[in-house]
């Protein structure tokens, strides 16, 4: 079926089931951002491949609600699908619910598959629409009956990693979680989110592209801990190791059954990281305590072992990037390079590094106007050939056994305009301001966002995505709970958190600029005014200076840039050849 035929089939099923509006979130039973092929429902239904969005289908309208990162991409990918782009005003907000409230009438029915909707999303739908007399059915899957050849669940093996890598044993992590459970007076805690499960059990897998996680659920009770995972994914030695840590292993599908028969008085569920199907299966006599998974908070603050490993991974990544940018500069003149070929080359260079496992997300290699698409991924149809002119944006990262990286750099391929140079320098000022921030302990991410945006706002410019996100340790490249954006998220920046700082500027149809480093938050002083923190920059890769308009920078910006590039040379040069050292020495020369 093509997209129009799929849409017609869904509408036919809606008519048969008495459904007036059907919601398809971008999610899976674990409320993941990046999905196994089986749960790429939005891509299958509409052709849109972005990692954030919601489809809403009514009798006479079909729309994709997504944010500014994907506006151009969505317009292109939805062409001819029967779906229209609806631009979100606030990133992450369920604005389609308000639209449904105006669109539908009393007595109408809205439905969605509870396996794909987070509890928080399902509750928003119920709380806004049911008072209007609109019925809500959260247990209807209209895709599976028509999805011919739907992919099965992945069967790749999973494996455990040692305490010498993680810095904390599974038994000790569960002990910390059980202390939190006692404080909340709950006897059971159900964990659905894959990165939480991976962190708690020191387990990694290959079930999701670019994310080293394994599909599973974890039930922690006062006297028992059970991992629900597909049979055969763990070696017998790993099953025995988990048992020694107090964790039994059971079949993946039994997780849904055990929730229905749980005997606890109170159970802890994270409404943002648990699907509605699990939530609604909890017996009525069991009180549900809705709160963030303790592990989400714990894993955001890296221990000394994780930080040390991450620093090592950053050196390897910086060496790979240096080799790549040198190769790019020397070969662009051939006229044979393209967005796809350079992404493949970069992955190949990274893959030669010790401990490399995979890329941490699909490389964004955006040449000229494609750089203005924040989450661009080149396809055979869009693949641009690189010329000796214009800007190239490369946003990439690696998964190493000792850390996760995420970095964006912009380089000139020749004939740069004054406007491009000005925009680049303004973005660089934002990156520097965010990196140099000093702030009291307890500061929230929206303050860091504002500090970073200030020099960009001053020029009456802005960007439509967040300034930064948390990053896992050999885990998901997007990790919470901290986030640096304009939303009033009540999560403080704590010591040990690794986050990105990545302001940008995008001129549709022309070019895009983003300069991204990862930083570690640290306490620097404690005095009568409280504790104060700053950021240690972890990413080690030169920032291009040939694009800088020095007249737009203050002395503090120039000093930071020169010091940073000098540090990059110092850290990377021992791992480079003499020729590579000479090339990098020139790139990191002070301005």
From TrEMBL:
Keywords: Aminopeptidase, Hydrolase, Metal-binding, Protease. The keyword rRNA-binding does not apply. Residues 310-520 form the Peptidase M24 domain. Residues 531-591 form the Peptidase M24 C-terminal domain. It comes from the Bacteria. Pfam families: Creatinase_N, Creatinase_N_2, Peptidase_M24, Peptidase_M24_C. GO terms for cellular component: cytoplasm. Residues 7-130 form the Creatinase N-terminal domain. InterPro entries: Creatin/AminoP/Spt16_N, Creatinase/aminopeptidase-like, Creatinase_N, Pept_M24, Pept_M24B, Peptidase_M24_C, X-Pro_aminopeptidase_P. GO terms for molecular function: metal ion binding; metalloaminopeptidase activity. Belongs to the peptidase M24B family. This is Xaa-Pro aminopeptidase. It comes from Sphingobacterium lactis.
């Amino acid at each position: 079926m093509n997209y129009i035929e799929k849409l017609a089939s869904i509408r036919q099923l809606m008519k048969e089931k008495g459904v007036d509006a059907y919601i398809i979130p971008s999610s899976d039973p674990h409320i993941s951002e990046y999905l196994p092929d089986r749960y790429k429902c939005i891509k299958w239904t509409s052709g849109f491949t972005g990692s954030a969005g919601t489809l809403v289908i009514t009798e006479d309208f079909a729309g994709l609600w997504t944010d500014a990162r994907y506006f151009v991409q969505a317009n292109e990918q939805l062409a001819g699908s029967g779906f229209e782009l609806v631009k979100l005003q606030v990133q992450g907000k369920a604005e389609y619910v308000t639209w449904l409230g105006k669109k539908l009438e009393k007595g109408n029915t809205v439905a969605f598959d509870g396996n794909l909707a987070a509890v928080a999303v399902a509750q928003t739908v119920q709380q806004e629409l049911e008072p209007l007399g609109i019925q809500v059915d959260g247990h209807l899957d209209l895709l599976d009956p028509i999805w011919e050849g739907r992919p099965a669940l992945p069967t790749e093996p999973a494996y455990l990693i040692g305490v010498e890598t993680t810095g904390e044993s599974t038994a000790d992590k569960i002990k910390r979680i059980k202390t939190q459970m006692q404080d909340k007076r709950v006897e059971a805690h159900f964990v659905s989110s894959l990165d939480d499960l991976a962190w708690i059990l020191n387990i990694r897998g290959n079930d999701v592209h670019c994310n080293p996680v394994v599909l599973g659920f974890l039930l922690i009770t006062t006297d028992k801990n059970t991992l629900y995972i597909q049979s055969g994914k763990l070696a017998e030695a790993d099953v025995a190791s988990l048992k020694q840590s107090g964790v039994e292993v059971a079949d993946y599908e039994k997780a849904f059954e055990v929730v229905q028969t749980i005997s606890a008085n109170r159970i802890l569920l994270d409404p943002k990281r648990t699907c509605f199907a699990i939530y609604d299966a909890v017996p009525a006599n069991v009180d549900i305590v809705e709160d963030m998974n303790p592990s989400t908070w714990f894993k955001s603050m890296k221990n000394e072992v994780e930080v040390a490993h991450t620093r090592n991974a950053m050196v390897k990544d910086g060496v790979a990037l240096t080799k790549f940018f040198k190769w790019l500069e020397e070969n662009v003149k051939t006229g044979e390079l393209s967005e796809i070929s350079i992404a493949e080359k970069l992955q190949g260079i990274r893959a030669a590094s010790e401990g490399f496992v995979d890329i941490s997300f699909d490389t964004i290699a955006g040449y000229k106007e494609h750089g203005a698409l924040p989450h661009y991924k080149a396809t055979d149809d869009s693949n641009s050939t690189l010329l000796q002119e214009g800007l190239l944006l490369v946003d990439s990262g690696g998964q190493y056994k000792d850390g996760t990286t995420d970095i964006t750099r912009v380089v000139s391929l020749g004939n740069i305009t004054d406007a491009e140079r000005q925009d680049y320098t303004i973005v660089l000022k934002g990156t520097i301001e965010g990196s140099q921030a000093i702030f009291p302990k307890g500061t929230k991410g929206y303050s860091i966002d504002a500090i970073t945006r200030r020099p960009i706002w001053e020029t009456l410019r802005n960007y439509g995505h967040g300034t930064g996100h948390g990053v896992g340790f050999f885990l998901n490249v997007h990790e919470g709970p901290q986030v640096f954006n304009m939303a009033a998220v009540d999560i403080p920046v704590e010591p040990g958190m690794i986050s990105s700082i990545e302001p940008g500027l995008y001129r549709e149809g022309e070019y895009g600029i983003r300069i991204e480093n990862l930083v570690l938050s640290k306490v620097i002083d404690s005095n009568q005014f409280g504790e104060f923190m700053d950021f240690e920059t972890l990413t080690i890769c030169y920032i291009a200076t040939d694009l800088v308009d020095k007249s737009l920078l203050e002395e503090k910006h120039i000093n930071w840039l020169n010091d940073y590039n000098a540090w990059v040379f110092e850290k990377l040069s021992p791992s480079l050849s003499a020729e590579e050292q000479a090339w990098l020495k020139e790139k990191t020369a002070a301005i």
